[in-house]
Structure formats: structure tokens, C-alpha cells
């Protein structure tokens, strides 16, 4: 390991030279109370910024062990440190020179507290990974500016953001406590036979469609008495709120009264939220999955027979593949694929669902003979899905009362305040909606029960290169798509991807699984599950370089299932 004075001398030596000479500074340097590792140097001032790492021991940072004593607290503390580092970078960095010269940045957390590769707290040290635009004039090195940035400014950033005596002790403890409370709450749902919980006083509406911060002056949530339960949490103490039981739950009400807002809070309840978010004590079971219609998506060998029978032209729905799925077939496929990952709670919203998959009213049944309609609507299967397969459903409805029949609970939203209208809804039922039994053998409800094994050749992260061995190409620009080899994976309609770094993690996970030949050995969902086990045991950075954020099996599988080249044995 070299000393920081060596870095200083090198920067002076290469001052004014062509930009590629910056590669001379790669290596690890001793800065006395931390180490700086220059991992990747950009080749051009207009290219992606250089990648650097800070390694600081707990002895030097004096970070209390209580702040990372379990995975929940560790993730909360890591999110706080990432935010603190981001603030310090914004104050210190300034754009000067060509391209991204002088800019320092880190993968900054949003409202969700996700495990991230940008800050990883280990048993004895903390590693912080960030980006720096190394200064240049045109394509000439500004060595003295780089020296000012790395030798003088960076130690101040590290001291302000990573040394405990410079941190707000109450604030960092709040992040750790909030994460631990949320995970404790989520762990208690199953034993009480619940799928979700919304605390009294929670603020569910967001500031805007592009701003996930809580809406100012929003109506605080208040549970109906019949749904209220109380939990004792390690730090918040006794917390009361609306507990949604297992089974079939309807969320109804007039337009703009908060139905979809509540469902959105539940869909993001699979993640922990930072203090003062308003949703920090809104949790759903970890495998809860929202499914929707997605016209035009590809489907690879999915058994749709629980919802779609023999198709016109003799096409077999038990091994259904298409490059251009309809609304009903895409949503049916998404349901089956979600169950295959072990999802035991489904979220549906009438507004973004295929109507003909959700319902078929009595008049339409009279007009179109049963043998002419291959779709068995979800309303006739939802009861059996719970009773025979153990899968609960929470569904937002505004235009169909057919679901009153199979529903266990009906929650009506009135100006964002929920009311229990289960008895009133049941009084309107006349027994006309006949429930149909599902054959559990046709549905895989765990990765090990899947019947789908991917053809490894069809999951190809490499690009063709004129007769030479191709290079892997896995790129993301935002949370909406991944370039994977020669293909694009559209993520835009996978609802529970909430961060662009999750998209990067999905790309890295698929590349890892492909290169480790996991698809040759395992069923499709099991191969993905093995990949996530690595990320959980060795941390996200084990999947590959770059800014990665926590992902679930449900989103990883959803992405792979949208790879158009995917083929299933």
C-alpha cells in the first residue's frame, strides 16, 4: 500500500499530460485514519466518472456496534451514512473544467431503506464506494485540482460523513431503530395470519407522481375498529393500526378517495422506509407481489390453465408462449410467475388489470357461450386460490360488485379514511358468482415446485463480435430497462422496482447466474434464488461492480421472464 504523499507526487507529475495518464494513480493509499482505493479510472473526462472506495475501520470511525448489531439495524445505519456522505459531497464538489470534472457523488438512497453496495458495514470496517470526475482542461489533466480534491477535500468529507463524533447521534439511531421496528413488525404478520399492517397516523399520499416524499397536510391514516390490532415494537413501543388478514380483501370506494394510494403503500410495504417518511410503519409480507396487465410482453412456456383454457386454433395454454401477449394472458402469466417465486400475497388494481380476466358478468355469460370463452375469470378462482393454495389477494375495485361474493373483508375508503363495509357488501350477495376449484397441482407455489427450467443458451449476456469471442454487455440507464447482451428487458411495468440501482442489481444478478452456469443445474426460480443467497451472505458487492441495491426474487424473476430470448425446456 502506498501513502497519500505518493498520490500527491503522482498528481503533480502528470499535471498537464493527456487524460489517460490518470491511470497511473490506480491503487490503494494510506490516508492515516482511512484508506483510499482508486479502483477504476475513467479514460476520458466525458466518460463515466472514476470509481473510488473509502475503507475506514470502526476503531477510527468510532461507530458504535449497536448501530450494526443485526441486519436490520445495519441497513438503516448504512442508509444514514450514504445520505450523510451524499450531503458532504454536494457541499464539497464543484463542476470545474471539462465533462464531469470536479464532481463527487454517491448512490443516494430515496425514501426506502434498501441495502446498497455503496455503503457496506462489515464486522471491523465500513466500505464506501463513490464516483469522482477527475479534473481536466479539455483532455489535459488538471493535476493540482485533483490534488486539492483528493488530498484536501476528501478527508474532510470522510470526517464529516463517516466519523461518529461528527454525526447526529439521534438521527443515525433513528434510522437503525426504524429499520429494526419495521422488520420486527413484518416478521409478526405471519404468526397473526395477516398479510399487511398500516399504522394509525401514517401518511400514505405522496407529494406528487415524481416525488415520493410524504404529501404535506395529508389526512393521517386511521384504522376501523374492527381491523385494529396492536403490536409491541422494540423502539416505538405499542403501535396500533389496521391489520389486513389473510384471505380475500377488497378495497373499494369512490374515485379519488385513496384506494390506489392505500394499495401503493402496501406494494412498497415490502421495503422499510426512512424516519419521517409517513410509511415507516406500513409493512406487507416480504413476498407480497403486485400483478398487472402488460400488453405486448413476451411469455415463455407458462401454464395458464388455471385461468385460460383451450385457445382458438388448438393452441395449448398449458405451455403458453408468445412474443406479444394480450392484457389477459400477460396478467395471467404474471400471476403464475409470481406464485412460482413463492409469493403468498397478490395485489391487484382494477384500473391496470385486464377486465376480461377479472370478471365476466351474467349478461356476457348469456351472450357468449361458456365453450366459446377460454378465460375463467379471476373472480371465480380467487376463493380457491386462498383455500387450496394458501395465496391471499388484496384487490382495489371501483366498478364491480361481483367480488363481494368470494371476499372475506371489504374496506371502503372515504376521504382517505377506511371503513369496514364487509357486512353491507355481503348483504348484497345473491350467490350468482359460482366459485371454481383450482387444481393445486397445476400451480407451483414455491421455487422448488416449479416445472420450468431455462435453456441456458437463451440467457446470453454476450454480444456478437465478428467471429471473435463476444464481451458481456449488461447496462442500465434508469429503473425502466436493462440491455442484456443483444436484448432489452423492459422493466417499466414491474411495479415494485423503485430504484435505478435495483435495475443494476438485476442485471448483475442475471449476469452472475449465467456466468456461474446456475441455469444448467437448477430450475429457473431456484437458480435465481441461489444468486440472491450470495448477495445476502456476502453482500451485494459480490454480484459485481457498480451501484447495486437490494432486490427480491419476485422482481429478479419478473425481469428474466420478460427477456424475449428466454426459452424454457
Question: Can you tell me about this structure?
Answer:
With 569 residues, the protein is α+β, with helices and mostly antiparallel strands. Among the domains are: 2-167, no CATH class; 456-561, no CATH class. The chain is 30% helix and 20% strand. It contains 15 helices and 26 strands. Strands 1, 2, 3, 4, 5, 6 and 7 form a 7-stranded mixed beta sheet that branches. Helix 12 packs across helix 14 (524-538). The longest helix has 22 residues, at 71-92.
Topology:
Layout: E1 2-3, H1 4-13, E2 27-30, E3 35-40, E4 50-57, H2 58-61, H3 71-92, E5 104-105, E6 119-121, E7 125-132, E8 136-137, E9 140-141, H4 143-162, H5 169-189, E10 194-199, E11 206-208, E12 211-214, E13 228-233, E14 237-245, E15 248-253, H6 259-267, E16 282-284, E17 289-290, E18 299-302, E19 320-322, H7 327-340, E20 345-349, H8 355-358, H9 362-367, H10 382-389, E21 392-396, E22 409-414, E23 417-420, H11 422-427, E24 474-476, E25 481-484, E26 487-490, H12 500-515, H13 518-521, H14 524-538, H15 553-561
Helix pairs in contact: 1-4, 3-4, 3-5, 12-14
Amino acid at each position: 500500500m502506498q501513502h497519500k504523499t505518493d498520490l500527491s507526487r503522482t498528481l503533480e507529475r502528470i499535471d498537464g499530460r493527456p487524460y489517460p495518464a490518470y491511470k497511473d494513480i490506480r491503487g490503494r493509499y494510506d490516508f492515516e485514519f482511512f484508506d483510499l482505493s482508486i479502483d477504476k479510472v475513467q479514460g476520458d473526462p466525458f466518460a463515466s466518472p472514476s470509481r473510488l472506495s473509502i475503507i475506514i475501520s470502526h476503531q477510527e470511525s468510532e461507530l458504535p456496534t449497536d448501530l450494526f448489531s443485526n441486519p436490520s439495524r445495519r441497513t438503516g445505519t448504512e442508509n444514514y451514512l450514504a445520505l450523510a456522505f451524499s450531503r458532504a459531497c454536494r457541499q464539497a464538489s464543484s463542476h470545474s473544467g471539462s465533462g464531469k470534472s470536479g464532481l463527487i457523488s454517491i448512490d443516494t438512497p430515496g425514501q426506502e431503506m434498501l441495502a446498497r453496495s455503496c455503503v457496506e458495514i462489515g464486522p471491523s470496517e465500513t466500505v464506501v464506494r463513490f464516483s469522482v470526475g477527475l479534473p481536466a482542461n479539455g483532455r489535459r489533466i488538471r493535476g493540482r485540482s485533483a490534488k486539492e480534491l483528493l488530498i484536501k477535500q476528501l478527508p474532510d468529507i470522510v470526517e464529516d460523513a463517516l466519523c461518529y463524533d461528527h454525526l447526529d447521534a439521534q438521527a443515525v439511531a433513528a434510522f437503525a431503530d426504524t429499520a429494526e421496528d419495521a422488520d420486527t413488525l413484518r416478521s409478526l404478520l405471519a404468526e397473526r395470519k395477516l398479510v399487511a399492517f398500516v399504522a394509525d397516523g401514517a401518511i400514505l399520499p405522496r407529494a406528487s407522481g415524481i416525488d415520493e416524499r410524504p404529501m404535506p397536510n395529508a389526512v393521517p391514516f386511521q384504522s376501523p375498529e374492527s381491523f385494529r390490532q396492536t403490536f409491541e415494537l422494540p423502539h416505538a413501543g405499542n403501535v396500533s393500526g389496521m391489520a389486513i388478514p389473510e384471505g380475500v380483501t377488497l378495497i373499494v370506494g369512490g374515485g379519488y378517495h385513496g384506494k390506489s394510494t392505500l394499495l401503493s403503500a402496501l406494494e412498497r410495504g415490502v421495503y422499510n422506509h426512512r424516519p419521517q417518511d409517513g410509511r415507516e410503519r406500513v409493512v406487507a409480507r416480504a413476498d407480497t407481489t403486485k400483478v398487472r396487465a402488460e400488453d405486448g410482453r413476451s411469455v415463455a412456456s407458462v401454464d395458464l390453465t388455471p385461468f385460460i383454457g383451450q385457445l382458438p386454433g388448438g393452441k395449448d395454454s398449458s405451455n403458453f408462449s408468445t412474443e406479444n401477449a394480450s392484457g389477459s394472458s400477460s396478467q395471467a402469466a404474471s400471476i403464475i410467475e409470481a406464485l412460482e417465486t413463492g409469493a403468498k400475497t397478490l395485489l391487484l388494481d382494477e384500473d391496470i388489470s385486464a377486465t376480461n380476466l377479472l370478471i365476466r358478468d351474467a349478461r356476457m355469460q348469456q351472450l357468449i357461450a361458456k365453450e366459446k370463452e377460454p378465460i375463467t375469470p379471476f373472480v371465480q378462482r380467487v376463493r380457491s386460490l386462498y383455500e387450496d393454495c394458501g395465496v391471499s389477494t388484496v384487490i382495489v375495485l371501483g366498478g364491480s360488485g361481483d367480488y363481494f361474493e368470494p371476499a372475506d373483508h371489504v374496506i371502503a375508503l372515504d376521504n382517505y379514511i377506511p371503513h369496514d363495509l364487509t357486512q353491507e357488501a355481503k348483504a348484497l350477495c345473491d350467490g350468482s358468482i359460482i366459485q371454481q376449484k383450482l387444481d393445486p397441482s397445476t400451480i407451483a407455489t414455491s421455487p422448488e415446485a416449479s416445472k420450468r427450467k431455462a435453456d441456458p443458451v437463451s440467457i446470453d449476456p454476450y454480444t456478437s463480435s465478428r467471429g471473435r469471442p463476444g464481451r458481456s454487455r449488461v447496462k442500465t440507464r434508469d429503473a425502466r430497462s436493462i440491455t442484456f447482451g443483444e436484448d432489452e428487458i423492459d422493466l417499466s411495468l414491474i411495479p415494485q422496482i423503485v430504484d435505478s440501482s435495483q435495475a443494476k442489481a438485476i442485471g448483475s444478478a442475471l449476469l452472475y447466474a449465467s456466468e456461474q452456469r446456475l441455469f444448467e443445474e437448477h430450475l429457473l426460480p431456484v437458480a435465481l434464488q441461489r444468486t440472491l443467497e450470495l448477495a445476502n451472505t456476502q453482500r451485494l458487492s459480490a454480484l459485481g461492480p457498480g451501484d447495486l441495491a437490494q432486490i427480491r426474487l419476485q422482481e429478479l424473476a419478473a425481469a428474466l421472464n420478460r427477456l424475449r430470448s428466454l426459452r424454457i425446456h
